[in-house]
Amino acid sequence: MMRNPPLPLLPGYDFNRKVGQSRFHKSQHFGNVHNLSMLLDKALPGIGGAPMPHTVHSRWPSVYCRGDVSTLPAWLAFDKETLVFDAYFKEALQEVEGSPFLPRYVKIYFYLEDGTIQVQEPRRVNSGVHQGVFISRQRIRFPPDSGSDSFVDIIDLNIGREVELYGRVFKIVNCDRFTRNFLNRLGITVPDPIALPEDPYMERRFKMQAGLQPKRPKKVSHDETQFLRYDRCVLRFYGYWDDRESEDGILHKLVVLFYLADDTVEVREVLPANSGRTGATLLSRCKLPKEFKGTVTPGEHDKFTVLNVLGQTAAKRRLIYDALNCGANATSFYTQRDLAIGAVMNVLGRSVVLCDCDDYTKEFYRANYGLEDFTPRPYPADDDVVFEAQDRPRLPPYNGYGSHEDSSYNCKTIYPVAPVKDLKQFLRRDREGLDSRVLRFSAQMISSIPNFIKRPFVLSYFLADDTINVFENVRVNSGFQGGMFFSRDRFVKPGEELFGSDPPACYTKEDCYIGAQLELRDFKFLLTDADEYALRYMELHCSEFPKSNIRQILHKIRERARPAYKQFVSEQLGSEVLRTGRTSFKALRRALINLLGSQITEHEVVTVARRFRVQPEVPVDCEAIRRLAHVELKRYLFNSFERLMETFRHYDEEHSGLLPRKRVYTCLRGARLPLDVELINKVLGCMPAQDGDLVRYEDVINFLDYDHFPTAPTEPVSVRHDLCWLSHAPTVDASVVAVDAFLRELGLEEDLRASCGDAGDNPCGGPGAVAAPSAPGLLGAGLGEPLVQDAESCELVLRRPDAPCI
User: Fold this and answer.
1) Of the candidates 115, 310, 694, 793, which lies 20 to 30 Å from 104 by C-alpha distance?
2) Which residues does the UniProt record annotate as the domain DM10 (predicted)?
3) Which domain holds residue 557?
4) What's the rounded Cα separation, in Å, for the pair 503 and 316?
5) Strand stretches in 379-522, DSSP E
6) Mean pLDDT, the chain, as a whole number?
7) CATH number of the CATH domain containing 352
8) Is the dihedral of CA 317, 322, 328, 333 positive or negative?
């Protein structure tokens, strides 16, 4: 520590210069170059990063106060920011006549993040010199004769200045806008750009190339540019062609299509329904001339004119095109500038008036031509006779003979015909394989007689033709015979008029759901339950069955529970349910009925319970699968386990002992393993997964090898039947419901938090108010204690009964 020697070393006469210093290590003067440790020549700072006394600063100090600039390092503050200068240097030429020097145009890049400089020469065609990166990116020192050992920095680069880099003097003539603004903000004045010197050699070359141009210049067409820009862009106008002055002429309403890709026009006629006219295309897509002078001969509108300069016969003649098009007819065609609302087009001698256009056409002319007035022009009055559609004749009332369909078809036709069934519905909803397309419900008869109430019924709804049958199950000593109660038929709803002109309404699939009451021929039935197929089918086709649409049901619950969500959670569900996150079906049903009352049905409650059910996991008996696999392998005398191991090792190129599960399955099937597909999948399911979907194939061999790893014998079973997915289809048990998932699906917790965050001083209903459930707070409370909400922070807290109010 440096101090003043004349002053005594006493408190108050000296101060510590290292106050606030956090770095006390020495700089590392050794480095690793080509895996060799050696002493570096780079000048490094001293202890704590302080510069050494003999060190010469390579960068200029900041002109601003320390507190006025950003504390970020330069590599972060000026990341991807570069100053670009245009410069040139002259290179002497001794062997080129008329060109004593060659100006080389370059770009100087100064990177602000580290002060490095890069010089790059843009490439020019046939320049004769190597171009590209002239000086690679690095920090460049001043030349030795300048007397300075520092590097070229930002203050040395400006328009009009000359900078020497490795013996070449570069004259800076221009810079980009970012560089000019950056230097101006630093207080550096940037002069106006300087013109670059002309290259005498390149000027001579341009004059020589200009003299090599052909006398007959080739005609170049730029249709590709227009095609690429306006491909599939069509202007659509609506107009008419009034042909009523001619004999039997009418008013034709037309649609004019102008294709911007090639300036072609197409005209179509709008034919009204039942007009008796065909051929809607009035003009096929082509270029439309403004003046119609008759039929165009082939080649009259061709772009080029072909001249025969030699010979009269086909063998000796020579054909060239006329570049000047001396004999071409000047024909003007319609373009996009000629089309507008109210304009009259000459379509091959027919006057077509444009009255309106579509939205795209309006936007096109508004953006390209600045038009704003697109008022439609009215069509002339059409004197055609318009026949109004008459109502269908009303059918006579039903007389009771046959069905309503038979009577209606006999009234519509002279000869009696059978009614036509809806074949589309039949083909779409009829039985398909094991899919029966039949919805079965358990029903209970509604009657004042107690014995009738106990009779079990099964109501089946056939989706193929909307018919219903009712079957009564036989009960022992019930006094009822059982069997078919109602045969398959369509049942009319109560209160419908049977002997009317319109057919009565019958029960449809929307009327069949759990909790519905159906009156079938004076017998009332209550649908109490449904089988798994019916419930699953209705859930998969929820757009046709609104009672199984979980989105509509949750929306109904959400809208009803939104005003009193906190009371619904605390009173209906309870703290114990919220602690475990599980509840029974009866508790959920009671809570939903108390909330919605008659607005929710039993089927909707079942749909909610099935949606958020807790399905227990069924463990796989791997030992039984192994014994069954050994029985099948012994029965077919399979013992090629060594060849199977060779196959696995062939595909294991990394010799890791692991293969993807799909590859193992392919090898087992390719080795003709005498096991059913279901049994192979069960065997692979018993293998533990390694690193995702990888399986250790040695474990598969040991699992199947009955010689080295025998198992107890077991009885053979039908693998195709017992292991089929239909035989072990999991039964849906909705007796336990996940309340936490149900509350998350409702999404009212986020709304409650948002309302609490946007409210005033007391947003949550006052002190001690019961809080709404939340995933981390309410469902994880764990003690069954009442939850309250802090009036100031809107956070959920636990409060014991003996604790004072917040």
Assistant:
1) 115
2) 79-187, 231-369, 435-542
3) 549-616+734-798
4) 88
5) 438-446, 456-462, 467-472, 483-489, 517-520
6) 81
7) 2.30.29.170
8) positive
